[in-house]
Write a structure and sequence with these properties.
393 residues, alpha/beta, TIM Barrel, 2 domains, 10 strands, 46% helix, 9% strand, globular
């Protein structure tokens, strides 16, 4: 058996919009046929994925009648049952329809804001019906080109009101559902509100039901802003707010590319997988691992499934190398925590007048400490050797 082949237990998932991407871009028409959702689910199951995610209109066309909606959902649920697939996450498309040209929750027109709430409540109902436990909010068109169009503080207040309202709706309906907010610095708007995960984490702390809201960071979105995705995810994990994650590849300084996971910045991808898997000693991430990416426009349908398998296989390859890396005795020695019998109790103690005086009086030879080499060159070289398979496997 191939140890790097995806299994249901890996909790790998894809969106209908990812493997269903027909290769259309702002400069060119589609290069692949649009595939029916049930077909995509069956193919994902064959590839070893465990879950499929969706926007409301990925499954139910905009404007569909209630009868049509119920038929589509009934058939989709049967496909999920037949394949053993699940829907771990759902979301709402609040960016495609022209009504959202000035945003959704933050739009100046109250009719737009009301329609966004209507659409989201219906989409939440759909997600829960399909078994979703996580609901993601990406602010697609929540932003500006002409900044003078609204006070950005008003946009924040409107978004907060919408999130508080929707949290209340979920609680009132008795749904077992958590929200995850997804940041992005720009595109399709010139400037997006809440451009990074750090912005989202602070915003969450201001919500009425902050306990049920976390984040859904995406590799590409943080890299677009020139930030370390590993540090972003670490902060979310440390705050117990990593509710969901979007994995893909991205070249810094470019448009949102949604490349195959691990195809760019292999060291960053390795360190991310190491963090998520917990091989470095911390708590691991146990939620769905969602690949929010799509195949190159050069590919036919066969290439789409090569892309999907590649995302999952690369993750498992990196997980194996992370385990070998953190089991390596030399690595362990290089990153071992420095112990000091005198200082450790003072540094780990809560503040008191006595501890402050003791710390102020502690003898520290700064010159001697500064002379000690830390071995990070060796550590980084060993990191590269583990990633390249020259050591540990």
């Amino acid at each position: 058996m191939d140890p790097y082949a995806a299994q249901k237990s890996d909790k790998f998932s894809f969106g209908l919009w990812t493997v269903g991407n027909a290769g259309r871009d702002p400069f060119g028409e589609p290069v692949r046929a649009v595939q029916e959702p049930n077909y995509l689910v069956r193919k994902l199951a064959e590839c070893g994925a465990y879950g499929v995610n969706l926007h409301d209109n990925d499954l139910v066309p905009f404007g569909a009648s209630r009868t049509e909606r119920d038929r589509i959902v009934r058939e989709f649920k049967q496909t999920l049952k037949d394949t053993g697939m699940v829907v771990p996450m759902a979301t709402t498309n609040l960016f495609t329809h022209p009504i959202f040209k000035d945003g959704a929750f933050s739009a100046n027109d109250p009719k737009v804001r009301a329609f966004a709430l209507q659409k989201t409540m219906a989409s939440i109902d759909l997600g829960v019906e399909l078994g979703a436990k996580i609901y993601v909010f990406w602010g697609g068109r929540e932003g500006t080109e002409a900044d003078a169009c609204r006070d950005p503080r008003v946009a924040i207040q409107r978004t907060r009101a919408a999130m508080d309202f929707l949290c209340g709706y979920v609680k009132d309906q008795g749904y077992d559902l958590k929200f995850a907010l997804e940041a992005k610095p720009n595109e399709p708007r010139s400037e997006n509100y809440f451009p990074t995960t750090g912005h989202m984490l602070h915003f969450i702390s201001t919500l009425q039901h902050h306990e049920m809201v976390g984040v859904n960071p995406e590799v590409a979105h943080e890299v677009m802003a020139g930030l370390s995705f590993v540090h972003t995810v670490a902060q979310a994990m440390e705050a117990n707010k990593l509710f969901h994650i979007d994995l893909n590849g991205q070249k810094i300084g470019r448009y949102d590319q949604d490349l195959r996971f691990g195809s760019e910045d292999i060291k960053g991808s390795f360190l991310l997988v190491r963090l998520l898997e917990g091989t470095c000693g911390g708590k691991s991430y146990t939620g769905p691992k969602h690949f929010d990416a799509h195949a190159y426009r050069t590919e036919d349908e066969s290439g789409v499934w090569d892309f999907a398998k590649g995302c999952m296989r690369t993750y498992k390859l990196l997980a194996a190398r992370a385990n070998a890396f953190d089991s390596d005795p030399e690595i362990k020695a290089l990153i071992a925590e420095v112990k000091d019998a005198h200082l450790d109790p003072l540094l780990n103690a809560s503040y008191s007048r006595a501890s402050a005086q003791a710390l102020k009086a502690a003898p520290i030879d700064a010159t001697a400490v500064a002379k000690r080499g830390l071995g990070y060159e060796r550590l980084d070289q060993l990191t590269i050797e583990h990633i390249m398979g020259a050591r540990g496997l």
